[in-house]
């Protein structure tokens, strides 16, 4: 096989405006306009509005390239476009090759006839997605979310590009993935699908290999090379007899792949090479993990279970929902994604849900999830909308699914395919006209056509029709006792945090709470005068209309009125952290009945107030630190009521864990009221109530409540594994004295260690340095007398610091400093 890559520098012209610049491919129009200073950064202030206008224009990408005689001499010559966004007309040497309409597809076109030896020219004309959907909307009115440009679901283009309740309206266009030409003769692989058959101490890989054979060749042979994680190589050779056949590969003493926290992530490299005699014709490489993975659903006293089962073990899925990492896709890269995935691992995730309104992620996203052990819940790219499913649209969707399912299916991390986000439930709960013919279209696409693709292309992976769902057919998709659940009454429904405890969902795949990004991040998109949450610029970076009001509403319930803008941002993050902690700890206390907590949402695609736990600059909000604690595999938590504190420990590891639960109930004025230390043995994969304290004995009146708090820890070999503080009263009315936090910093080779101690209870201690380094822990409570060490790894700092500089820059605040 011969090939040339057409990525690199192209010429970009606008059809409707005098723009003639160079553009990097893969990339996009907006990326090029920013790089060439034609538009200003669309993320700054309200620049989004100016940038948006450019999506009304058509753009032409053009470049020349040289084809040599050897490439052209092959029998078949293919132009391969991995991603064209979206309405593209492709011309080679001025001849029309094709018109494409789907950003998510990989397109291949035979181009031998139009190419010449030597210099050639390729031109790709992108027409405005806005003009297109406007016209289409006149033909058939489609609906979906109100924050996106009207009519966005007419086009197979990432929905979020048209705006969402956390995203700007920037419907970019361009060649967003690789583009290349390859050629071949004789034969090549047309498909390889591996099924794992797990036996005791052996895994057999049944590789179904299909070939495209252009001409009879009795010397065709295939070599499969297996490189085991321990470095052993094994070869399998075979003469190719049929265009479609099975190759069985036995792996003795297999090392199994596990999600993080349950074992290692060994990967086996499998390389398939197709030869004619000694001449290599084609090669395909895979890195696979040996594991079984499915969703286990079993009827029980509550309804029906819904849990990821890996190698026979049902796990509690912990993680968050992932959205695209930037609105301008050309700015994404593997290193950025690696950081994000490492941040997930750092916060004890074992699962991530790729939400359906974005893109099917790059291969490297899945490679990273394989390596680090994150199970991927992969939505197909449909969310919150109706679609007009005529034959043409359906065929396009089927091809899109085939391309992406085929590309992603071998990844160890792939946990399930899900048809869409919130569409089945929307038909039932959002007041959509039940008589609309688009409801039948829904069934055609998500309950017939797409599951057929998954069954055909990836029969080993579980298909779930929608999220949330109870299995489809509009059978109560939001049932609390079956399937997965999106719960939004806390936040959208303004219900108090306590309401989370009323429910025992089987698998919570969405629940969330908004916050503002930190001041440092706000400074990147505002001027001084914008720094008021109701300013025009701040509201331009808040896409959920009612949200600022909601943040203030919950703030009023929990905290004192913040003294300034920065304090408001800080307190908004505490609210968000507490809300999610409230939910997740409850779900984990009910481990077994509930088997998943995937909060909304992990990341942002631009600087904005949103439900994310990591902002668009990669800075952890308080929630991400909270998540690290509430997703700790061994978690101590307390279910508190006005009468009692029930102390639990949840063990989400495969080992028996021994340790002690230590409790100190203290009154600011009266001192220690109760001290208790309980030895515990925790069974693997269990949640256990350890003790219940009757607090009516200690909290007799409002004054007691406002002064009493419980500090609880779970210790293993005298080391604190998990801890927390429960206040006898809402934080706003609690008598917090000046905590007098003392900090001492030690320079220790590759890290700094901050040693902390408080004289009085310090609530939500925030450590910060101007350069936004990563702390091992943050926004934690510090009980008096307890010494705490927090590590800052030097490699997370954006510059080199001396001990003195760090000491000088280190800022510490806690809740008392917010008012
Ligand atoms: C869920 C998601 C998104 C949305 C989020 C916050 O429904 O599926 O569509 O951004 O809620 O409203």
From TrEMBL:
Domain Mannosidase Ig/CBM-like: 644-733
GO terms assigned for molecular function: beta-mannosidase activity
Catalytic activity: Hydrolysis of terminal, non-reducing beta-D-mannose residues in beta-D-mannosides
GO biological processes: carbohydrate metabolic process; glycoprotein catabolic process
Domain Beta-mannosidase-like galactose-binding positions: 10-177
A Pfam family of this chain: Glyco_hydro_2
This protein's pathway: Glycan metabolism; N-glycan degradation
Source organism, top-level taxon: Bacteria
Cleaved signal peptide residues: none
Family: Belongs to the glycosyl hydrolase 2 family. Beta-mannosidase B subfamily.
Protein's recorded name: Beta-mannosidase B
Organism per entry: Clostridium cellulovorans (strain ATCC 35296 / DSM 3052 / OCM 3 / 743B)
